[in-house]
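Sorry to interrupt, but I need a hand with the structure work. Go ahead and set the record down below:
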Amino acid sequence: MPPSRSNIPIAPSKANASGLRAFRSRGNACRGLVEDMLTLARHDTAEVDAQATMGKQQEKLDVAGMAQRAVLQFEAVAFERGVEINAAESSSAPVFIDGVQGDIERVLGILVDNACKYAEADGCVVVDTKRETSMPSSGDQYRHAHSLF
């Protein structure tokens, strides 16, 4: 007598195992995206304080070098989207900030990825870094600063 359906052992197939790994990977990517969005929101609302960096080591970072590495990291993404991506020549000069390396890399990655994603076809994304020593003093300067992003 053949075994009943409920007694048949079910072994995960290679396809199922592969699908589960892909599902888990997508879930981790989504969780990372949500965490990145929260990080940006905290930065945007000036809530980056001891709580946001708790347990993370702040250090002096060359954001210009990090931006150049982000350009290299997203060259393939830009190519796939039909967009040219470059680091501006002025970004070869070091620009130092105090921060948490992983957080700054994540924010730069989000900004460069979004720039590539929303650039027009056959467009060009230029990543530039420079030290600003003053805040915008008028509404027009403030609106101009926001138009850069």
Notes: The mean pLDDT is 75. Residues 14-44 form the longest helix (31 residues). The radius of gyration is 22 Å.
